[in-house]
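User: Predict the complex.
Assistant: Input components as received:
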Amino acid sequence: MTRYFEVQQRDGAARIGKFLLKEDIRTPYIIDTRNLSMPESPIIDGGSLWKYSSFEEAQEHLRETRQKAGEDSLIMLPHQDFTPEAPRNVTIKVAEKAEEIKDSGATGAIYIPGKQVKKHDLYVLEGAGCFENNARTFLSILLEMKKDIAPDTAIYAPNIATPENLAMLIYLGIDVFDNTKAIIAGYNDIYLTTAGQFYLDSLAELPCRCSACSSTNLTSLREMDKKSRAAILEKHNINAMEAEAALVRERIRAGTLREYIEGQCRMHTWLTALMRLADDEYDFVESQNAIARKNTLVATCGESQNRAEVVRFAKRIQERYTPPASDVLLLLPCSARKPYSTSNSHWKFINALGKSRKFVHEVIITSPLGIVPRELELTYPAAHYDTTVTGYWDAEEKEWVASCLENYLTQHKYTSIVAHVEDAYRVICEIVAEKLGIDIIYTSLGNVSSPESLRNLSKTVSELCTGRKRGHEQTQKDLMKAVADYQFGKGAGEILVPEGSTVKGPFPKHQIFAGKKQLITLIPQYGTLAITIEGAKALLKQGRYTVKIDDFVPRGSLLAPGVVDADPLIRPNDEVIIIGEKAIAVGRANMNGDEMKRSNRGVAVDLRHVKKLE
Amino acid sequence: MSLNKAVLDIRNRQRVKPSPIDVPAATWTGKDVIESGEIDTITIIFKTSGCWWGKAGGCTMCGYVYDSAQDVPSDDDLMAQLEKAMRKASDFDRFMVKIFTSGSFLDTKEIPIEVRHRILEELDGDERIVKVLAETRPEFVTEENVKDCVSVLKNTDFEVAMGLETSSDVIRKQSINKGFTFQSFVDAAIAARENGATVKSYLMLKPLFLSEKEALEDIVQTVRDAAEYTDTFSINLCNVQRGTYVEYLWDRKQYRPPWLWSIVDILQRTKKEFPDMIITSDPVGAGSKRGPHNCRECSHAVADAIRLFSLTQDLSCFEHLSCGCKDLWEQVLELEDHTFGSPILD
């Protein structure tokens, strides 16, 4: 059980946490390596077993250290380190033997792949320093480690961090680092920056204004004796790393670390490789990503379309979304302003459609999201993304968006399809039409918002509109149903927007009532639903997005140790139903379902409504 | 996979060029120091059928196994090797012969007992030779074997050399894979000394997986532990030999050969503690990436000082050594204790 570490804030796999030791330590944290052997430090290295002639000796040394340090210091238990490619079963055997050494307070241990983990507050990624420039191996061991150890355990990657790679390592979910590389670089006359390293002789000026750099200048630095120079370089290198750590913590608090690392990773090939390979580990990344956020998702590079949020949105449209009953599909281009329907261009489209709008179903084509059915235009990240617009779409962008459209048109049939699009949007429609052997009617005449184009759209659509049509309230219900299905899975819409229910509130603050009982409300800033206790009771039979608790009545927030079971589908910020013998409640998840189950510390759910059960 | 299996896998992958079996694997001349002072030496590496331990896997740093013969050399082949080697000593007036086999001289599977007798008789017959040193694993250093050698070498001193590497059984087993214990070394050393031979112990800096400081302190401790059983110490600095497990990890940035500053520190400390003990080190490959090294500027000067000390046993050889990289080495000593399984590379 982790007793001394708690995760407080998350941004994807990255997190801000706290060690509750003799002094509180906030993570991501950079250990001063030199302090690891000092018993007064809050985090102590219990030492290497290579140097003891017997375990008794190591045990005795540990006992003395613990006595000096107190219970509230974290001691990494004595370890016999091997490099990563040492034979696995030798390292496992040796590590199992080392477990004979016992300790009572806060402890850390070496993670050995394939060996059963215990409940330490911190695990060390052994030999992390060997993996620099080896993205594939590093990531696979880190993911194996993350799978094995409890989520509320801190991960320490020794002898690897630099100002340049720190953001990426934190992004991948590492909490603790040290300054070994920064010190050694200092003694090698190497000047570290977030934009890579420089040999001191190659610099024409010092590209930093930290206290160490302000205390000197390049000329005097070069003329100094080696020891004094090394001391200043070391100080700068550590400052650079601390500054980067602080910046990354801010990014985590703001929820924008992904945007930062998409740029920062270009400083080194292996960091870019880490990002791409991690994106490939969709299940791992997706499970940590919040279902919705207030932030803008800024898509500035090719990899942005591989973001878990983007891929998840596309997958959910494929797996959870059911279009409303319409015979005519209208494909529209996206707009800079979100939600689309509040943009100038979409206003024009909607005006042009006029009364025919009742007959059509609108789907917006966009990069990097692929396609966005009108009903989901409010839902994160559809109303929350911003992308670089140049008019040029690269091949992968086109391919991705086309594949989303193709999937959609394969699943859902219409009697006619109209596309009011130009340029790349049209190219995409043509690719898909040809591939599926379907006809698409193009209505734009050079410029989608020109009066001629709009007239043509109006005319074309009105001629097609003979089939099923939807009234105003039905359109509102279709929106609410679509969001419910998107959020809670197929079928949730039927439960939360039942036959005979009514819609209240203006767009987009819709509420659904069954008789006098409110079931759900749409929260405009996320485009997701909040459920009432009544809504929760109705949804309970579906058995998803539930958190089971013991027989108590929770108040305010539900802590992780109170969770008996949780749906593994739950993501941070998901709306969840809490159910126990004594109470039913609804609230917003603070961590994913798996983490709720496996954690011993931290807030699992922020509760909104609680109702005692008789 | 055990450590031995890992070593063996590499051995099996390694290709060895065939070579004639009536020529020694190597022969060279040099200088060494014995009780009476400096002396010329000739070193002979016999090409035998090979080290039994090495054939079964063997030590993680040892590439000498590839020096052994593809076919079993006949008795005459072995004598021919001796004859060819000894030509190099023709100019010497007084010298010492150092015999290695890339395995064990006293293993009769490598050197049949009759050949052993013929070699030793021939060396004993050469009046210029004052001492014969033969390297062997301790399991062959029995009372019987030592007596046998000493009885042939009537007028010549005999020294048994053993690669103890470290007095730590944990390191010898889990890092070096040497296949014997400190106790077996002690038993062998006692058997040698009680039967008229002297003992030379080879130690190794630095074994895989250990930090620079752990390795350094291990050698200092080993000198203390083994001093009472040995007459001479020679500290080998690990160089990355081809076809070894050490090379495999070194290639993957998981090993760094020792710093020369470390051996300087060891020699200074152990010589002060044991002033009468001969403690030497031959920094083979010093200054190269695969060998023990400091920075580019000072490696060769420091290696020369180590060689000079080894001959003179005079600590003043180290007095004037200094270089900016010594500060870096001091940092490595402090920090590498906390890298948890990754070496600090240059």
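Residues 363 and 373 of chain A are 4 Å apart (CA to CA).
Let me know if you want any component modeled separately.
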